[in-house]
Amino acid sequence: MANAPASDSAAAFSNRSQPASLGQDNLLSVFELTVGPSALVFSLWGLAYYFEGQVHASYIILGALMFALTFPGQVRLQSSILSVCISIAVTWAWVAGLLLFIGIASGYIHEFSKKILYAWLWVAPLSKLGACLALRAAAPMLLRLQGPKQRAIIVGMNEQGLALASKMSQSRYTRTELVGFVDDRQATRLNSSSAYRLLGTQAQLLALVQSERIQIIYLSLPMASQPRILHILDELKDSTTSIYFVPDMFVTDLIQAHPDSVCGMPVISVCDTPFNGSDGAIKRLSDLVLATLILILITPLLIVIAAAIKFDSPGPVIFRQRRCGLDGNEIVVYKFRSMTVTEDGSDITQATQNDARVTPLGALLRRTSCDELPQFINVLQGRMSIVGPRPHALAHNELYRKLIKGYMVRHKVKPGITGWAQVNGFRGETKTLDKMQRRIDFDLDYLRNWSVRLDLYIIFKTISLVIKDQKAY
Description:
Layout: H1 11-14, H2 27-52, H3 57-70, H4 81-106, H5 114-145, E1 150-155, H6 159-170, E2 176-182, E3 198-200, H7 205-211, E4 216-219, H8 226-236, E5 242-245, E6 259-262, E7 265-271, H9 277-312, E8 318-324, E9 330-336, H10 360-367, H11 375-381, E10 385-387, H12 394-403, E11 416-418, H13 420-423, H14 433-449, H15 452-466
Parallel strand pairs: 1-2, 1-4, 2-3, 4-5, 10-11
Antiparallel strand pairs: 5-7, 6-7, 8-9
Helix pairs in contact: 2-3, 2-5, 4-5, 9-11
């Protein structure tokens, strides 16, 4: 697949390295990182307030330093209580000793009340232990809050694949449900004592992904099977599944590749969403804040446009169209009606220059992108993001997924009101397959290199282009 040109690469604007994942892809991973360090900090501030009636700046600074030294934390949900107590004691002895040494050497220890520091020496580790136990108790509820488990398949019923399956079945805190295995070997050559389902062969993998509603695939295949692995990856580009390698090997054209672990077993992500864990929370929070502020500011404009459409031509003010959203699921997208027709069937013709279906007012709305403004409501609903690959009509989706390899990978993220392809000149009509290929290249480049900085750049670039852009008909 062709990549976006280096001069227009999203990596140039992201300017960030890909950190290694810290494990479980769920809310527990966020709490595991923060609950221990936070307990140490708040125990200090609580003691300061209890003894002195307020939290002085010196304690705020000490708390910030403590958080920096102990973040990210480890709760060890799978470990025994005894091992957790030992880990907390050893960690606290090291950190407290380091801070004490720095305080004495610099003389800053005299800025703090000895009574508070002595109390903190034993309250801090107890508060961290209490926070860890509380997280253990709350873990089942946190898992339920995220909805149903993600369904997974392991390709390769070998020793490593069976070990991964065993760890998944023994884990109390995984969001992954193992549906079964896929393997080309005869049942007589496989582990006959295995309690896991053999779903079919590798040739049936894509069909199984669709019929079993699979969201995650783990490839547990030997390195010598590289041609077969590359063929599987090529086939899976027509799906939205997240793909991980269990063996340690290298392939090209990766989407958000990074090391990870599943129930303590190392894997390598091959094709995944950039919006896992804290990045997903940041993306959603920024969408909610920006969409709310923008809707408040543009409400008078929305009312004026709605009234103008109503008087300009017969038909509804809002055009609702079914589009392909996150994971390829169908969503309903809102737009101001700009045509005399409201096509939403199996055969949709893209708008072209001087299209007779476009109303005079609609031409102005499309040229200034004002017809897209109702989609900020879609953002608040959680169906879309402000920045992401533009959603295509269902009919176009079914057409291009057959013609462009990797087309469906763009659905690993929510569609956006604007996107990386749009600010690079691929907005509006795509007359040729080559132009659609280039649009998809930019969409995948966005997935590989997402950052908050890149999103902000796209937003500001969109604003600057809206007035002079003449490519939307």
